[in-house]
Amino acid sequence: xxxxxxxxxxxxxxxxxxxxxxxxxxxxxxxxxxxxxxxxxxxxxxxxxxxxxxxxxxxxxxxxxxxxxxxxxxxxxxxxxxxxxxxxxxxxxxxxxxxxxxxxxxxxxxxxxxxxxxxxxxxxxxxxxxxxxxxxxxxxxxxxxxxxxxxxxxxxxxxxxxxxxxxxxxxxxxxxxxxxxxxxxxxxxxxxxxxxxxxxxxxxxxxxxxxxxxxxxxxxxxxxxxxxxxxxxxxxxxxxxxxxxxxxxxxxxxxxxxxxxxxxxxxxxxxxxxxxxxxxxxxxxxxxxxxxxxxxxxxxxxxxxxxxxxxxxxxxxxxxxxxxxxxxxxxxxxxxxxxxxxxxxxxxxxxxxxxxxxxxxxxxxxxxxxxxxxxxxxxxxxxxxxxxxxxxxxxxxxxxxxxxxxxxxxxxxxxxxxxxxxxxxxxxxxxxxxxxxxxxxxxxxxxxxxxxxxxxxxxxxxxxxxxxxxxxxxxxxxxxxxxxxxxxxxxxxxxxxxxxxxxxxxxxxxxxxxxxxxxxxxxxxxxxxxxxxxxxxxxxxxxxxxxxxxxxxxxxxxxxxxxxxxxxxxxxxxxxxxxxxxxxxxxxxxxxxxxxxxxxxxxxxxxxxxxxxxxxxxxxxxxxxxxxxxxxxxxxxxxxxxxxxxxxxxxxxxxxxxxxxxxxxxxxxxxxxxxxxxxxxxxxxxxxxxxxxxxxxxxxxxxxxxxxxxxxxxxxxxxxxxxxxxxxxxxxxxxxxxxxxxxxxxxxxxxxxxxxxxxxxxxxxxxxxxxxxxxxxxxxxxxxxxxxxxxxxxxxxxxxxxxxxxxxxxxxxxxxxxxxxxxxxxxxxxxxxxxxxxxxxxxxxxxxxxxxxxxxxxxxxxxxxxxxxxxxxxxxxxxxxxxxxxxxxxxxxxxxxxxxxxxxxxxxxxxxxxxxxxxxxxxxxxxxxx
Length: 930
Description:
Elements: H1 3-18, E1 25-33, E2 44-47, E3 53-55, E4 61-66, E5 72-77, E6 84-88, E7 93-99, E8 109-110, E9 118-119, E10 128-130, H2 132-137, H3 143-146, E11 153-159, E12 162-167, E13 179-182, E14 185-186, E15 207-214, H4 218-221, E16 228-234, E17 242-252, E18 262-275, E19 279-291, E20 322-323, E21 328-331, E22 335-338, E23 342-343, E24 351-366, E25 369-385, E26 389-406, E27 409-419, E28 424-425, H5 426-433, H6 448-463, H7 475-482, H8 492-502, E29 517-526, H9 528-533, E30 539-552, E31 566-581, E32 586-597, E33 603-612, E34 618-629, H10 633-637, E35 639-641, E36 645-648, E37 665-666, H11 670-684, H12 686-693, E38 708-720, E39 725-737, E40 740-748, H13 761-768, E41 772-780, E42 784-797, E43 802-814, E44 831-843, E45 846-855, E46 858-860, E47 870-872, E48 875-886, E49 891-898, E50 905-906, E51 913-914, E52 917-925
Parallel strand pairs: 1-7, 13-16, 36-41
Antiparallel strand pairs: 1-4, 2-3, 2-5, 5-6, 8-9, 10-15, 11-12, 13-14, 15-16, 17-18, 17-52, 18-19, 19-24, 20-23, 21-22, 24-25, 25-26, 26-27, 26-28, 27-29, 29-30, 30-31, 31-32, 32-33, 33-34, 34-38, 35-36, 37-40, 38-39, 39-42, 40-41, 42-43, 43-44, 44-45, 45-48, 46-47, 48-49, 49-52, 50-51
Helix pairs in contact: 6-7, 11-12
GO molecular function: siderophore uptake transmembrane transporter activity
Pfam families: CarbopepD_reg_2, Plug, TonB_dep_Rec_b-barrel
Family: Belongs to the TonB-dependent receptor family.
């Protein structure tokens, strides 16, 4: 039975069970600001214990029905104000509520830390939050970019439409160690194995909040939350009604030597409507386009050339953002020579866009039961830095969600369906174009499989003086001769070949095919109210679980799936128990989660925490957390034969019958055997030389791939030093093991071992005769490393309305005795800091916000540069915005800049230098809030 069918049956069951409930009472009232007496349009009014609620209108008035008998408790809240609880006596009644302005962000309520609502002050682990007002007032161009101002966050920009976030080290441009949820939906295209930043995420107009939990969170959120989790929530159509629209125009590439100034455009639309507090819907659309940042670092990174000889005149020149020059040969009496490559700017399309279409339908079956269906469609183009630079071109992600949500539970199912469309590998494209035009010495264009060797033959002949009219022993002249007929960027033939090769998926072209699907169902139930009814006050119990199926399809271009889709599944279940003691001053929480992927052993991840609050101002916390990360689909199932080597994923089924793990030699032992053989063969003959040196070969013992593991300890302290000054500090220490890595082995045609367990001479002879195949295997390193860090945040709100926030983060990595080749790069600056200053009403209806970010220098290590370090220099960023409210027109005018000083900054080695973006936006909001 499909998961959706199961969920429909569950929905029918709940509908029948609760359909007898009826609304029989109405509560009305007014919500105002306690200082100004002005009505608070958009204030939320909820009935405690129910989903039923209302939103205050432009006059601050609300009206809501409820089926509760006796006293009814209302929860009244408004962004930027302190929430208030009001008890309403039996019978119809009108209430007047005045909310005080919240002077500190530590008065917020969060969900992410424990999967239940709680004060951020008493959250058991570190948690950061952006509410709807912070989202609206961020000085960055988008709210997602504004996450960089939260303490502990690392953000890496690969392109205008693609930014990747991380916490607590081991950052990468494709972060599969960090979970990103939108309304509970995992926002990753499963084929990638990680979320593509906010390319397929929330529109700014529909973003209500973002909560971030740094560090291992697998005990509650499963294997993807190895380094942390970001939970984003869209706006509920019952609470946020009316029409909203935004037009944002900007400019980037100011003073860019690569191009002239370019137009940036961002349009948004949202409409929501509710009927009788029973049925509500919303429609959301956004479209952004602009000219992406150019990757133009042409530094010679050839590893075999000494640093003093690298550069444009190096015959083996390998430019970082030039593709095709990776192809090289070492030619006798000449040395190492590389082919002439093409700059990235001629291979990719820097005109990028992001289209997001969302719709949702909400139906309140009863005041305590709501059914939801949502549909998300996203399509866009971005440039992503991975092992190569990829043009994610027209990539689409479709999501369907159905959910049944009650006061104490939810049951949810969703699907993620991706299509790579016209995406391609720019490095492969450069190499393949270089194979379309090469001529032999008779002037005839050769076949692509002969092109590279033919080019080097031409080079050799010219250098050796065998070509009339070409200067001998001159590298430049030899290259010019070998390059005769080279397709020039911009020419008709170049563009024709470029388009053709992008359309060819697999090794013969540059195109990428991924049509991978993911099906997910999860549920959660909170037994706290039932326990309270049983007399166990102060005890909370939460249970839940999920089931997920992956369905992979690349038509043989990446996986061995020409015969049909590769499918596998995983499930997880968790429980969390909390108890309040010492008159609610101490809260103890234990959590445990068990996960099982069909390809791996099951894993149990516990978490324990204690929060001690001697009074309302001071809150001390300590926790032990654990996490793990399942290998991505590519880690498990890639099977790509690239000629001299086959890249092979580490799932046992992926290599079944190939005799690789069982019968291979460590590649590092091959050199010793070959050199020993060559030294002996002239003395004792080939047969004896093999016998003398065969034991230098080492049979491999590579384990199948398994999840990564981490155990982390954290202590923290939150305090409201005064009503206007708050502090939040934490320290963590984490131990990591089982990092996923690649290793190369050599499989001989003969058995590696003889019957007595010694090295088989026939297998050794296979190595000499090239009767073998090389494999790059995905596996795990046994090494153990540690990381530690600390953050400190201060927020001060002045009596005059200014808010000053500062935070700093220290991160430290200890390699211990581990082999650095077995450990992913930490890729995290040792120190970073953020300072923000803002005022919401520095003058009537006029506000501003300024944010300054600084981080120190560090070495970035990634697969794009073959795991060789590239220096990321220390840099600072200044974002700023000024907002003018036009209440009569329900419109906000915002003028702002990301990277106001227009410094061109590289955040990951090989990625583009990012400059300033200057914008003006007009936002019309029918439900405009203060």
